[in-house]
Design brief:
Elements (H helix, E strand, L loop, with lengths): L2 H17 L6 H8 L3 H7 L3 H21 L8 H18 L1 H10 L7 H9 L2 H12 L8 H21 L6 H15 L2
Length: 186
């Protein structure tokens, strides 16, 4: 990715999380990125295009982070734990990206095409869940319900450790995963 485009995405991410879409001007994004406003419009025709590009970028970064050590040969629970822990660590360590995804996931500023493109990249994760169901390792539930439960426990865990960083340790992270696992395992 072009360095200036990356600077613009980083600045927009920070400002959209802090001030929201309407509270952030394109000139403020350009100034924070250290580039001219015209440079912003060279890379993104509109503010809407910028926010959609940022959404795809953050979702891609999330996917990379959570699947980095996925190993198809591992047991289902081990891989699920890795995915869950990686996602939770992403939420804690990359809080701006995580907050942006949470805030703008249901936003009207993200076009349906952009949402579809982002979700298509996560199709392999649904295939992974379906294997767990087929192998009777987890309860049979609709994909959407499993995704919402997965995300809900991550959201709760990230919130908890954000409020209580002194309690963030391997033991408590493993306990949090086990609470999730107990809810979905057969």
């Amino acid at each position: 990715m072009n360095e200036k485009k990356q600077l613009l995405l980083n600045a927009a991410l920070k400002l959209f999380v802090e001030k929201g879409f309407h509270g952030t001007s394109t000139s403020e994004i350009a100034k924070t990125a250290g580039v001219a406003t015209g440079t912003l419009f060279h890379h993104f025709k509109t503010k809407q295009e910028l926010i959609n590009s940022l959404y795809l970028y953050t979702k891609e970064q999330l996917l990379i982070a959570i699947t980095i050590d996925y190993q198809d040969s591992e047991q289902f629970k081990s891989n699920l734990k890795r995915l869950w822990l990686n996602f939770t660590h992403f939420g804690i360590e990359k809080s701006d990206m995580y907050q942006f995804i949470i805030i703008f996931h249901s936003s009207p500023y993200i076009t349906s095409l952009t949402k579809e493109q982002a979700e298509t990249r996560f199709d392999d994760l649904l295939t992974f869940y379906r294997k767990g169901i087929e192998n009777q390792e987890i309860k049979t539930v609709k994909d959407e319900m499993m995704v919402e439960f997965f995300l809900g426990t991550i959201f709760s865990t990230v919130n908890y450790f954000t409020k209580h960083p002194e309690r963030l340790n391997e033991k408590n992270m493993n306990l949090s995963f086990e609470l999730f696992w107990d809810g979905i395992s057969k």
